[in-house]
Structures are given as structure tokens and as C-alpha cells.
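Support case: user asked for a sample of complex input and structure output to validate their parser. Sending the pair below.
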Amino acid sequence: MAENMKTLGEFIVEKQLDFPDASGSLSQLLGAIRLAAKVVNREINKAGLVDIIGSAGQENVQGEQQQKLDIYANDKFKAAMEARGEVCGVASEEEDDFVAFNNTQSKNGKYIVLMDPLDGSSNIDVNVSVGTIFSIYKRVSPVGSEVTEADFLQPGRKQIAAGYVIYGSSTMLVYSTGNGVHGFTLDPSIGVFCLSHQDMKIPTDGKIYSINEGNYIKFPEGVKRYIKFCQQEAPEQGRPYTSRYIGSLVSDFHRNLLKGGIFIYPTTASAPKGKLRLLYECNPMAFLMEQAGGKASDGFSSILDIKPSELHQRTSFFVGSTNMVNTAEAMMADFSGPDAETNL
Ligand SMILES: O=P(O)(O)OC[C@H]1O[C@](O)(COP(=O)(O)O)[C@@H](O)[C@@H]1O
């Protein structure tokens, strides 16, 4: 197919030409992510053969056991971005605090990056697809000055670009700079990402719901009602829907993006603020989903309008086909919102 004969590098440059005053620094940054993705992909593909599986024997700031691949991916993406000079600092799931790059070039970098270097860690050792998630902003502090926490605590709507890499049956890089969502598949025989999914759009309706039902009893009433709605017999509306849950956000998101569907990670009794992290999991996925014609909320309002207050803050996450998210939100409003009492 003709479009396959276009590489990610060529596509990035082509898109840059749409902006005559573009400096090329975002293209450079995307190039860094492309390189790090290939290096991490190589390690993941041979994970069972080299000493990179299993725990690294230490915890991250969120008290989660860090996997060796978490640290490996974190180091590779950080190194690739520091080497380019376009990025003045990064924040990562695997770093307690943000990391400012102090080499002269980076100090003059105008971008900051937030990332989940290895998403779906619980699936690494069992050969189930995992991913990398990234979110890019322009810094708010003056170029050349010290990077500040304010550079990272920007609402998702301010993102310049976002994307993910999925290390699955094939490896893909999917990203958006605010002009549609485009997917590139890595051709391992030539080591190049080739355009395979241009201008991805999610169907407004789907037949897949994705949630860890193992937590059912701890879910808010609105979510319990929505799950029942998905499971009810209503053939004229295509219900019951199918339940699919991989347990890697990137993989569950990617499937729904292609087929239509909804992914929900709500608050639970044991995670009253939700589990997923706003800045480097939910904001980038919400940016992509809105660019693909879908919707992303915390069950009540848009994820992209949340004003962050902490680097590793968590949120509940409802993302996918617009009609499905609208229905779930309506049930949250009725049964878990401020007027829930009157409806129960
Ligand atoms: O095992 P649970 O509670 O269903 O959580 C699965 C979710 O947690 C995550 O694994 C969190 O991500 P990390 O692996 O990066 O910590 C998501 O990818 C996934 O959607």
C-alpha cells in the first residue's frame, strides 16, 4: 500500500512544513522518542533471554515495585531526550521529582516531557503487550532559566503533542501534534516506523467495555449501573457488549481506538482518587482520544481541563467512543454525583 512507503521521519518533516515558522525542534524531539522506542522494543523482544525480566528490587515514589524494564525504558527515553537539547526537563512515573537537564543546550530547550516509560508493568513477565506513554508541553518558565514544577503542572489542554508506543504483536508508535492521530508500524526487517494508520478516528459507538471487574464491589454506584447496562440484553442496541481487559492501559486504549469501545478505571474504595496518573497516563491518552473524535473524562468532566496540583496525582478515567462515555457519565451523574441520593 502506497502510504506504507512513508516513514515516520518523513511524515514528521512533511507535517513541519505545514508551519512555515516551525523551528524543527519538535521534530527533533519526536525523533528522539522514535529512537528510544526502537531501543526499548529491542530489549522487550528478547526479554525472556536476557536478565531484564522481573523486579528491580526497589519501589518508585508511588510505592510500586519497579520492574527492571521500567528502569531500562526510563533511562533510554531520558538519555535520548537529553541528547537532543530540545527538552529542558522530564517528569516520569519512575522518578520521584522532575529531572532538569543541565547541559547548556538543554537549558535552552523550550519543551518539557512527561512520560510513563513502561506502561502495563504487571504484564511484562507474562509476554502480554505493554507500552510507553508521552506528553509534550512548551515550558512556561523563560528559556534558559531554571525549570520549575509549574512547567509540568499544566492542564492537559495545553499539550503540544502526545502519543504512545505499543510493544505488541507488532510495535506501533501513535501520536498527535493536534492535527489528527497517526499510527506507524515498526518494520523490524529495516528498523523503520512506516505509516500504517493515517488520521485514526474512533467510532462514535462501540460494543466493547473494558474495566477490571475484579474490583466490582468497590466501584461507585454509577459504574456498577453502567456495567449492568453493558451486560443487558438489548439486541437492537447491540447489547450485551463484549468485555475485554488486557490490564495495560496502552493496549486496552489502542484496541478501543481501532474498534470503538470504552475503557474505565474508576475510583474504588481502595483507590479513592483512582489508580491512573493524570499527567503521564490520562492527559496524553485524553489528548489523543479527543483528536480521534472520542471523549475522555473523570466521570463528570473533561480530563484535559483538570488543573494539576501534583506530579503523580491520580484520577478516575472514562475514555473512548463519545456515545459510550456520555452514557457512563449520565449514570455517574444519576448515581454517584451530588444528587445521587434522590436516585438510589
Ligand atoms: O491491575 P489493575 O488494577 O487492573 O491496573 C491495570 C492498570 O494499571 C496500569 O498497569 C498502570 O500502569 P503502570 O504499569 O505503568 O504502573 C495500566 O497500564 C493498567 O490499565
